[in-house]
Fold this protein.
Amino acid sequence: MKIMKFGGTSVGRPERMHRVAELVIAQQEPVLLVLSALSGTTNALVAIGESLSLGKKEEAKDRIAVLQQHYHDFVRGLLQQDNNLLEADQILSEHFGLLDMICQVSYSEALNRDILAQGELLSTKLFCVYLREIGVNHVFLNALDFMCIDENDEPRLDAIRHGLSPSLHTGVGKLFVTQGYICRNAKGEVDNLKRGGSDYTASLLATAVNASVCEIWTDIDGMHNNDPRIVDRTRPVEQLSFEEAAELAYFGAKILHPASIWPAQQANVPVRLLNTMEPGAAGTLITERSLGRGVKAVAAKDGIWAIRIKSSRMLLAYGFLRKVFEVFEKYRTPIDMVTTSEVAVSVTIDSDAHLSEILTELGSFSAVEVDADQCIVSVVGQEIGRENGVLQDLLRSIGMIPVRMISHGGSPHNISLLVDAGRKKELLQQLNQGLFGL
Ligand code: ASP
Ligand code: MG
């Protein structure tokens, strides 16, 4: 069995959904299909939830009406037969009816997660109506019946496997359709795997069913060597190891959800990044080992805070780093980069949710300085940390751009630089030239 996951833009227009059906039907082996919500839908649902959280019910209702109209038009492009249109309209009534109902009751975080779940439920149900219209046998699976996370929001792989397996062994089909992103939490409430989480769903399912491959279909021909939204000339990377891909996804390559590599890696299921608009293109293959040497790609992650912590009396006495790290642990705030000198430590974090508490606690035993609006630029490739010449090329490419932190030697596959967000574009362009000759 293979996993095929299609993102929002791949299902965002009726003709694209038709295309997805074509691609899926053409497969020889059984497929577990994972769909995102239509592009724009989750953003719209987030906005509806925001309106409600601010008590702006009329605004929320207006937003629901706009979204409903979009779906009304969408199904008319998707389907031709009246009986199927009728069914699709019933699906829309059910889900938009639920949204209308939520508007009547008082807002809660749990209800907000119900709102967010409607996008994937809609896209998969409508897709199944289309499959029926073209006479394709399939099994609809509700991810809320088997996708689950624990108290720490970590996926419960065994439970997922056990929940899913009976449905896959009913023997009725070779095409199973389910939702990305949505799940149930430890309380049994509807929850989700965070924005972009459909990739994560796909990878978790790949492990759960021990898939032959986990295909992630998007609107770009694979992971690129640099950010194509910022740099003019980029090219797809043919192959990456799980480790390289995880570093790139974590450090800003938007094509993949950062957590979506480890499950596939655990079961050693290859991941393939493919382009729905150009299905013949090679895309990027992610496997256990890295083929080829040297720098594979560069990625950038914005929205970073750098904190410099100076030990006033103790200098770097033993126990100092532990004290520093304990503060971050207490506030469940992961640290991305660390650099140390004899008297100071610099760390970066990507959320300011608990920044003020963290600063207060650090301030009780050290002098603290913060820089906001920083950007981590990561250079990734198998063993580049050990390869002669890479660091020299890198330093030369940086030129005169001021670097706030540099991290080399942590992972052998990654060298990271921290710069002011305002210098990101320049740095990515210079690295593109200096490291890839592009
Ligand atoms: N629909 C969700 C989002 O837009 C999940 C996903 O597409 O991966 O974030
Ligand atoms: Mg995505």
DSSP finds 14 helices and 16 strands in the chain. Residues 214 and 271 are 5 Å apart (CA to CA). The longest strand covers residues 297-310.
